[in-house]
Amino acid sequence: MAIYKNSNFLIILISPSGGGKSSIANRVLEISENIDYSVSYTTRPPRWNEIDGRDYNFVSETEFAQLLKQDQLLEHAQVHGYNYGTSRKYIKNILSQEHHAILDIDVQGALQIIEKDIDAVTIFILPPTVKILEDRLNKRKTDSKEVIEIRLKNARNELDYLDLDKFHYLVINDNFDDAVQEVKLIISAEEKKISRIKNIKNTFYGG
Ligand code: 5GP
User: Fold this and answer.
1) Is position 3 within any domain?
2) Does residue 1 carry a pLDDT above 60?
3) Whose CA is nearest to atom 6 of ligand 1?
4) Residue 80 placed within a domain
């Protein structure tokens, strides 16, 4: 059967922390053959269950400053007091393998990428209510009470960015499996955009 090839793009998941974007990204990666994870750089110390090179590339402030200076970051932002950034090289590598790159980044970073001439699909993920977000953050047990307070305050700020009308899709993460399926459906629909499919006529005529 003829293969209609589509060009690859970035999939940017945005949500307040506790919104579920990391779990959704992980599940989407597990069930997709053509999507890879963009491993970010961060100056935040690793959590007990995180592995360097898999969850993040953990770097010192000096190393991060060096990456910035060498223009190795596609976007970068300070989140909860630490620096985070997306590696240009990593993204280039994923796209060159004809895969999509999924990015788990904050709103500021997403906006920087939107401003660039890069093909990116942005999906805002929200828990159904702020109460449910608070319960999820408390249950996660990875952060102290103070950190949770900061994250809830940041969530309010992040929601304000919705008014900019810059993001493409909203997925409500009420039921996890449904949210994953919705993200997959969005990716499928985006792959079928005629503007992303190469040489349709040639492929049709067997070229
Ligand atoms: P955490 O420290 O909980 O893993 O992540 C904190 C926040 O930083 C999350 O909103 C996460 O999406 C965001 N983040 C992770 N990597 C990057 C990145 O490379 N760039 C930006 N702008 N944000 C990131």
Assistant:
1) no
2) no
3) 79
4) no
pLDDT tens for each residue of 35-72:
999 999 999 999 999 999 999 999 999 999 999 999 99
Does 5 have pLDDT greater than 80? yes
Nearest to 151 by CA among 83, 82, 79, 55: 79
End-to-end CA distance of the chain: 12
Structural domain tally of the chain? 1
Residue of 123, 113, 21 lying closest to 73 (CA atoms): 113
* Enclosing domain of residue 117: 10-38+100-204
Query: At a CB cut-off of 8 Å and minimum separation 6, what does 158 contact?
Result: 14, 15, 16, 106, 107
Asked if the structure places residue 66 within a domain, the reply is no
pLDDT at 113: 97
pLDDT in tens, 163-195: 999 999 999 999 999 999 999 999 999 999 999
The closest-lying atom of ligand 1 relative to the alpha carbon of residue 41 is 19
Asked whether the whole model's pTM tops 0.85, one would answer yes
Instruction: Give a yes or no: residue 30 inside a domain.
Output: yes
Rounded to the nearest angstrom, the distance between the alpha carbon of 52 and the centre of ligand 1 is 15
Q: Which residue has the tokens 């999939």?
A: 11
Residue whose Cα lies nearest atom 15 of ligand 1: it is 105
Q: What is the CATH number of the domain that holds 170?
A: 3.40.50.300
Residue nearest to atom 10 of ligand 1 (CA): 106
Residues touching ligand 1 (Cβ under 6 Å) are: 17, 40, 44, 75, 77, 79-80, 84-86, 104-106, 108-109
